[in-house]
Specification:
By secondary structure, the chain is α/β, with parallel strands linked by helices. Helix content is about 15%, strand content about 30%.
Length: about 425
């Protein structure tokens, strides 16, 4: 849409094009304004539950009547300063304590950008289509034995490296985006319903399923995990053959919250938490960081995952402002245990200012939402700008780590739109 109220039409452009993959950045450019004219740019999207998310930022045009978000600073609104993708990560829900829910991948995320003058009149608008599935990626539901997940396969004949994406509750987003990068990825949830215990055999079956696929290039499987899924990934690396690489993001070093069984026997008891140590903010949000029992003390040691047994490599990722639990302390403990046992199979990344919910980049930052199991409004932690930067860096780091340890050179070219 263009405005004819000025000497030249006002243009709002998304470059290189308005259609892109979800994890790709865009450049927002405006021209046709008056010199030094102040305008606001608004972004708006709706998640799959119908919750509206929006943001806005004010900009002052250069002498030529142009604005470039990759170069020019916001002077007010949802953020300030030069933030090329700030309109995306700063979007907030119109309903308190809602995360941006995008678990299904067949439909793109539609983001409307609109340009407004100081009186609020709209001068131009454009829609950004952010696709999760690239051309040629296949999506196949898998219901086989104990496996209930979705398999994503890159285009081409392969062979490809294989990744098991462990999500706390079912979500296809991260797995699909990894398939765009050349990984055969099976996503399965850690929890379904409200289980009283967890069986490692179910996830072992998923590892074996990936190993037997004709499109997989080796017998070694990578695992990507976050939060509770992190200790499941550690247990698979310690007790199941064929796990070559584990990405652990803001997890626990011990088997947390539910007992873990393997081959019909108790493998690890649960590390529990003290409800008396849950902290509530003035707004009623719950902080659980200091409620977990200490896995290094007598009552918690039996729950520690014996990662010293693992032959694969680890990428440990901790956010310093994680308010769910002390991820950094858990990471430091695991590093100490591995190195004291002569292990060098690890990398660490620590993000100051980032919170618990590290996701693939360019989605709205979530500071609080209802916890899936406790049904309490939880404060996850993180400062939006620092958290968004951490997601961009981590997404690249995950791909580099998996490529290094899963012999990714045989993978086909990643799909495009």
């Amino acid at each position: 849409m263009f405005s004819e109220n000025m000497a030249y039409p006002v243009r709002l452009r998304l470059l290189p094009i308005a259609r892109c993959l979800f994890d790709e950045p865009i450049v927002v450019k405006i021209d046709g304004l008056r010199s030094k004219q102040v305008v606001s740019i608004r972004a708006r999207t709706t998640d799959e539950r119908g919750v509206v998310f929006s943001s806005s930022a004010a900009y002052r045009a250069y002498a030529g009547g142009e604005i470039d978000l990759s170069r020019d600073p916001s002077i007010g609104g949802s953020y300030t300063g030069v933030e090329p993708m700030g309109l995306l990560w700063s979007m907030k829900p119109q309903i308190l304590h809602k995360d941006f829910r995008k678990t299904r991948v067949l439909d793109p995320v539609m983001v409307n950008f609109s340009l407004h003058d100081e009186e609020g009149r709209m001068l131009a608008e454009v829609t950004n289509e952010r696709f999760l599935m690239g051309d040629g990626v296949s999506r196949v539901p898998v219901q086989e034995g104990n496996i209930n997940g979705v398999l994503f396969t890159p285009p081409g004949e392969g062979p490809f490296p294989a990744v098991l994406d462990l999500c706390t509750t079912m979500s296809e987003k991260r797995a699909c985006l990894l398939a765009n990068k050349g990984f055969v990825t099976l996503t399965v949830p850690v929890h379904s319903g409200r289980p009283q215990q967890i069986h490692l055999d179910h996830f072992e079956d998923a590892v074996h399923f990936l190993q037997q696929l004709p499109t997989v290039n080796s017998k070694g499987v990578g695992i990507v995990s976050r939060s509770k899924a992190g200790d499941i990934a550690l247990s698979l690396a310690a007790f199941v053959r064929g796990v070559k690489a584990v990405v652990w993001i803001n997890g626990c070093s011990a088997n947390a919250l539910l007992p873990l069984y393997y081959k019909n026997r108790l493998l690890l008891p649960a590390l529990m938490f003290d409800r008396e140590k849950l902290f509530s903010t003035n707004s009623g949000l719950v902080i659980s960081k200091y409620a977990m029992h200490d896995p290094l003390k007598t009552e918690g040691r039996d729950s520690l995952v014996p990662i010293e047994r693992a032959c694969g490599s680890f990428l440990f990722v901790a956010s310093e402002d994680d308010l769910t639990w002390d991820s950094k302390a858990y990471m430091e403990n695991m590093v100490e245990r591995l190195t004291s046992n002569g292990k060098e199979n690890l990398e660490t990344v620590c993000y100051p200012g980032a919170g618990h919910l590290l996701e693939p980049p360019y989605g709205p930052f979530c500071s609080s939402c209802m916890h899936h199991f406790s049904r309490l409004p939880v404060l996850w932690g993180g400062e939006p700008r620092a958290h968004a930067a951490a997601e961009v860096h981590l997404w690249r780091k995950i791909q580099e780590f998996l490529k290094t340890h899963l012999s990714c050179e045989a993978a086909q070219t990643k799909p495009q739109l």
